[in-house]
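Example S7 (structure tokens).
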């Protein structure tokens, strides 16, 4: 097991030389997150979990387990509101409460934020003060709840450098992951955290044109 202080570092992968993709999972932790961690471990895959603060408060142990295994933990706010519809104080509260419970669970504040629904404006960008990560591939797992469709969407749409949106709160998504990991592994893909994909320096907004799904 990887030491907690080195979470997010993962295995040394040079994404300029090999085909890398970032698997990202929103809205957890949930009842199926532990099973997902098992699937990822079997393929030595690292992922980024954009967690909802109130879910972390309810189950901090699974977040610690994910972080200790080398996965990256990002913020997905406290209760998943559209941040662009909140006051500045409301945005700060959503981020600060999540930062607090994540730090209590794993010892560090999330370095990345995924705004719910991909909704960003100038105020949200200013108040966040961290890279905001959207996505380039939306598997639509939140809509279809069908493992076969999730597999087909993922494997058809992925390209080197993709940031893929999943939700670990849906059992159909977790059931799809072994097939996705197997197919993409055979195609030579490596599964890395968002930070690793960008060599530790994600831009201020990752895939800002991707605002189309239910992140």
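Recovered sequence:
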């Amino acid at each position: 097991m990887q030491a907690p202080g080195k979470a997010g570092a993962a295995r040394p992968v040079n994404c300029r030389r090999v085909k890398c993709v970032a698997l990202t999972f929103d809205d957890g932790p949930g009842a199926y997150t532990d099973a997902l961690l098992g699937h990822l471990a079997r393929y030595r895959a690292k992922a980024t979990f954009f967690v909802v603060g109130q879910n972390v408060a309810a189950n901090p142990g699974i977040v610690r387990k994910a972080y200790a295994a080398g996965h990256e933990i990002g913020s997905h706010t406290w209760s998943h509101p559209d941040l662009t519809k909140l006051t500045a104080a409301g945005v700060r509260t959503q981020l600060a409460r999540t930062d607090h419970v994540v730090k209590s669970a794993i010892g560090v504040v999330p370095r990345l934020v995924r705004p719910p629904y991909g909704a960003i404006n100038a105020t949200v960008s200013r108040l966040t003060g961290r890279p905001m990560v959207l996505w380039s591939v939306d598997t639509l797992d939140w809509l279809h709840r069908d493992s076969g469709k999730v597999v087909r969407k993922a494997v058809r749409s992925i390209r080197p450098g993709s940031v893929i949106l999943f939700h670990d709160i849906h059992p159909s998504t977790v059931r799809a992951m072994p097939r996705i990991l197997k197919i993409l592994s055979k195609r030579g893909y490596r599964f890395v955290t968002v930070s690793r994909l960008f060599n530790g320096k994600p831009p201020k907004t990752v895939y800002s044109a991707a605002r189309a799904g239910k992140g």
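Notes on this example. Residues 1-10 have pLDDT under 50 and may be disordered.
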